[in-house]
């Protein structure tokens, strides 16, 4: 899992260098936990295995997220829209963590 994630970052940086002369920006969006139905299924499975309530799974996870909430699909969409806009013209080769600060812990 970690190797594949780092591979994406390396590919992002390589493509950013190769495509810069053509004014094409390349960035990677690296989301943390995003609250979706898939996450809910994962939380339910984890709760069953650990013999705890789903609410406790979420509470434990939030302890490691400084912004104290899970990400949403809209959070991801907002970043992608920004990166696709002219406002991000000078951003390339970046792996942008969208994690509520959890990678800082």
Tell me what the structure shows.
The structure is a single chain. With 105 residues, the protein is mainly alpha-helical. Helices cover 50% and strands 8% of the residues. GO terms for molecular function: oxidoreductase activity, acting on the CH-OH group of donors, NAD or NADP as acceptor. It comes from marine sediment metagenome.
Question: Which key phrases capture this entry?
Answer:
elongated, 8% strand, single chain, 50% helix, two-stranded parallel sheet, 2 domains, mainly alpha, 105 residues, 2 strands
Instruction: Give me the strand/helix succession.
Output: HEHHHE
Compute the CA-based radius of gyration. Answer: 17 Å
> How would you classify the helix and strand content by structural class?
mainly alpha
> What best-fitting shape do the alpha-carbon axes yield?
elongated
Uncertain stretches: none
Tell me about the largest β-sheet: 2 strands, parallel
Report the total helices. Answer: 4
Strand runs, count:
2
GO molecular function: oxidoreductase activity, acting on the CH-OH group of donors, NAD or NADP as acceptor
Organism: marine sediment metagenome
Family: Belongs to the short-chain dehydrogenases/reductases (SDR) family.
Protein name: SDR family oxidoreductase
């Amino acid at each position: 899992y970690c190797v594949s994630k780092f591979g994406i970052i390396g590919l992002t940086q390589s493509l950013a260098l190769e495509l810069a002369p053509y004014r094409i920006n390349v960035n990677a969006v690296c989301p943390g936990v995003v609250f979706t139905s898939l996450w809910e299924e994962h939380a339910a499975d984890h709760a069953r295995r650990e013999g705890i309530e789903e609410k406790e799974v979420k509470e434990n996870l939030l302890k490691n997220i400084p912004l104290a909430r899970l990400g949403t699909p809209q959070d991801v969409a907002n970043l992608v829209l920004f990166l696709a806009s002219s406002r991000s013209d000078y951003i390339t080769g970046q792996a942008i963590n969208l994690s509520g600060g959890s990678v800082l812990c």
